[in-house]
Amino acid sequence: MNVVVLNPENYKEKYLEYLNNCFPNWGDAITYDWVFERRVGQHKADIILLNNEEGEVIAGSAVTYRCVKSKNGISVDFGIMTGSWTLPEARGRGCFSQIIEESKRICFSKNVPFLTAFVTESNASYRRLKDAGFYCKKADNIFSNETVFTTNTDFSIVEIVTADTQVLYDKLNQFPSLNSSFAYSKEEFEKQYIKRLNSTVCVKINETYFLFEETTTIVKLLFISDFNLIDLQCFCDWIRVKKDKKVMFFLSDETKIKLAEDHNFHIVKSFFTIQKTDDSLSFDYEIFKNISINLGDKM
Prior knowledge:
alpha+beta; seven-stranded mixed beta sheet; nine-stranded mixed beta sheet; 2 domains; 299 residues; 9 helices; 16 strands; Aminopeptidase
């Protein structure tokens, strides 16, 4: 039976080595600190290792913590399974299933009522989570294409080099009036959305704000203040012309996903999976069914 080791001391360097072996170019110590050491909410991330009967490390994962706020003002904590990996020689032996159960146990011990995970449909983890009874909320990765959407350049873009945190924070807090959303204090929002691994830039097209970060290969659109399709297409065209890159963003509203698909965006089918950590809890998954998730809410 595999042995669980929770929050091992002085293990960052080795954990990073395993992560990068399983997911090449996952990141460095700065990435590790941003993902696992940065606290959003009351709980610090938990690191999990699995050792086989010979005491060798064969798999690992982490649980980070967030809060969801409903349109009725109800706030609920939840954990997110993050950075899960299994060494090649240990795959197919039930390690991920054991990590799921251990992650649920940890959340339960902290009175965190839900465990969640972001997965793509093609990922083997999705099938494991679905088989384990997780509720699967459609939440897709969306990409612009190689070509521009329109030759019309008659739009006004205002580039804001330093994002106005208060304006964006106020815009984000409009969402719970319509849907559930991830909840942040202003300080937490700044840590999650503004002070990221890559520098962030905010632009305004007409009355829509676009907050994004640029990587070597793609532009990640972290937040859109209002889903206006024409403004969104203009933003993607501007990025294509200015930076010659695709734009990636995230949608959890099925109507908006269908609209994006109908207008030549590329959809990668994905899910936000959720399960109770205590079956005796009286409330169900209603708070997650209409949740509005931005790419900035993710790692």
